[in-house]
Amino acid sequence: MSSRTLRRSLEFLMVASGTCLLAACVTPSAPHREASVPVPSNVQMVQAIRAAGAREQSVINVDPLRSPGVMSLRDAARSDEASGHYADAASKLDQALKLSVNAPDLLQDRAEAAVYLGDYATAERLARQSWSLGPKLGPLCARNWQTVVELRLHAGDAAGAATARQQLATCHKPDVSRF
User: Would you give the end-to-end CA distance of the chain in angstroms?
Assistant: First the structure.
């Protein structure tokens, strides 16, 4: 072996070992993460649901007549909710639903109580049931579909949320222009 070949081999080994030493000293950077979208709290989701109903200024608004017993339970549920006693509110709404079976507005109220409790599957099921039994227009319809939007977003289902937003848009019935 010639001295020239030996010298090149030694240079190669020195460069290779130096590279390995430098690589060992470098700390790996943290993997790049996408900025995560903050997940709204249960309270924020219910606020968004109710805001959708309040924004809906459709010409259709159905307010059914209720028995005093159902109204009393509903009022007590609202009081419990305001105090942060969501399980008690849900229980009272369940009692009201026994008296007024399949009432769309009570089903939606119960769906919102389920959101407060973190029972998202029940909340979505009840909101969809409320929509199927309800007027399919106006504030109740908007609350139904906003519930689905919120729950789909919470589940990371952007496509499902987009579909629910399309349904939400159908809840509005504009007033007839009068000349």
Answer: 105
